[in-house]
User: Fold this.
Amino acid sequence: MATTTMHDAHHDAHPTGVMRWLTSTNHKDIGTLYLWFSFLMFLFAGGLAMLIRAELFQPGLQFFQPNLFNQFTTMHGLIMIFGAIMPAFVGFANWQVPLMIGAPDMAFPRLNNWSFWLLPAAAILLLVSFLVPGGAVAGGWTMYPPLFIQGGMAYDMTIFAVHLMGLSSIMGSINIITTILNMRTPGMTMMRMPIFVWTWLITAFLLISAMPVLASAVTMLLTDRHFGTYFFNAAGGGDPVMFQHIFWFFGHPEVYIMILPAFGILSSIIPTFSRKPLFGYDSMVYATAAIAVLSFTVWAHHMFTVGMPTASQLFFMYATMLIAIPTGVKVFNWTATMWRGSISFETPMLFAIAVVCLFTIGGFSGLVLAIVPVDIQLQDTYYVVAHFHYVLFSGAAMSIMAGVYYWLPKWTGHMYDETLGKWHFWLTTIAFNVTFFPMHFLGLAGMPRRIPDYALQFAEFNMLQSISSFVLGASQLLFLYIVIKCIRGGVPAGDRPWEGADSLEWTLSSPPPYHSFETAPAFK
Amino acid sequence: MQTIEQTNTQRYYVPAPSWWPLVGSVALLLLASGFVILLQNNPSGSYVMIAGALILITMLFGWFGTVIRESVGGLFNDQVDLSYRWGMGWFIFSEVMFFGALFGALFYARVITVPELGDTKLLWPNYEGTWPTAGPGVKETFAAMPAWGIPAINTLILLTSGATVTWAHWGLKNDNRTQLKIGLILTILLGAIFITLQIHEYSSATFTFQTGIYGATFYILTGFHGAHVTLGAIMLAVILGRVYAGHFTPERHFAFEAVSWYWHFVDVVWLLLFVFVYWLI
Assistant:
């Protein structure tokens, strides 16, 4: 690539103030917008979780009527998934993919901005729906009919919010795939890309495959609600179970959409702090691809209790268990990377190690739930809640925290406060486990989820969990403080604050220049 | 001019900050909230929707206009061109998945739900469970749309339009602008005839969107397909306008190709519709 000295005028236009954010075509600024948006949503949906735990502090109804409680659980799920976890990972993709492959920006910078600004529009619809007559959606984040068809105005708002978020995800994913396929620096072949880039390539493929299916599903909900169709009504030859099939055909890939980028972050952090190259790069790529392919063949394991032929149950049970193999490959590779490494335990590495351990617990409880006869017992109990919080909080959300600590020095040019970071880590990890580990026991003992009241024998564990969850919530405010403190100043990070890090972003200054790589960098 | 073009095409074009994405988001938020209001039987929602639609159209003109000016101004190098190809390809893939889910609903209803409702004698003992059906609880007599009338003619029309758009493409590649223009005009006309016949078919149907699962799957599949044909014809018309404005060279004409890809995709969806919605009943 020839070097250029002449820039046309608008290339170097750097709008300041609010314009910088509203009209941005810069992958780093848009990445920052995504990350802050997701953090706000994380705090809001976390606030809902605090209200849920306050109600569950004691048996009996304390603060909220059941309908309001149902709104809290439903919106907690919807906002955490679509508002917090997914946008956070897209924020990472925006910041890191161009930096890691040596590109000047994303392939479609304006489209990138639209992908972000659709999210606040969707968030407005979702948040305002709390205030309309009848309140927010209350039938669970899975939006099952017939409950979803019977609800009020908020249900329509949720449908359109899902449409907007789907549009955002699809456009964002097209952008990410195109960037990865077309904008790598010369010499960076597919099998030499950083694993984080690989995981996002496959995640983007999953998003483009899954989100249109969700759009179809909610569109049929809309016509059933308002235009007299019978898609999900047996009187007209439709079937509410059909919605569950279509929803989970989206929903199960969605689960991997929320964990594959986390695997990518772990695969960046663990080699750096072990001071060894990632063990088994190729098998890591193949395992990621295998998980993605399998994710389309397991959806009905969410539906073992709605009734299906034994042959189908067996198929979905075994297909689900197969996913443990590529996932096991990954856990093995991370462990082997650390083996005989020269490990140091800075905050990102602490989070990464904790994720490897805790996510594995979530994976194992997933295997338990895959067994049909066991699942029939555990369906809709707190065992399921424990399972998916081990996967989504200690898998996805704690990977996001790990990634934030890992790349904050690159993004801001300052080191974060290591002491406070370690406090945040230990508080989060301990409080998380005290909150969610006993849920396995409660679920096995038969405590149903999504119910504001419970039997007396569950009281001790629930009180302990509520107290612990308040600690978990409060420690995220510490996280907020650490991030703000780091942005406002601190020890200069230098170009490469982690001596073991070797991907391309560490060859740039911290923070990186406005157009990340003006010319394609050399790649050894 | 020559030197600027050279300088710019050496590196990947990163556009300047733009208001259009934000304008687009506001438009879609207005459209969505207007529709929500309208659905609560409050007619004022339609004003909000009209405002949203006008803003959206403005955005589309503004944004696409900017891209066309950039393209004509020579700001896009081969790498940018390839980006657009990947982008359009993956966009069409997302449309495949959207229609895939709707076809999935059709197959699920036909293969699993309806036979099962026929076998289960508890609620509706007299229900046969054969396709086409409005379901056991909807008392409506209707005739399914026959395949060998308008739908068969429409199949021929769309297949022909696929040929004419390819013929136009050959004209473009051989720098035969007359062939290009005639091919495009023919394609747009065939698309318009298709839509007209489709509207005629709808108006003569003996069933509605509310005629059980048959009506629901019929109208949602053919309806979304018809909307895509309409959009495709509008896109072809824009391309025709650009041809008259002298855009496109035999080597560089991705916008034309993108629209023709889209047109072929819509064509393939129709073939599946013809087989599974009209023919195999």
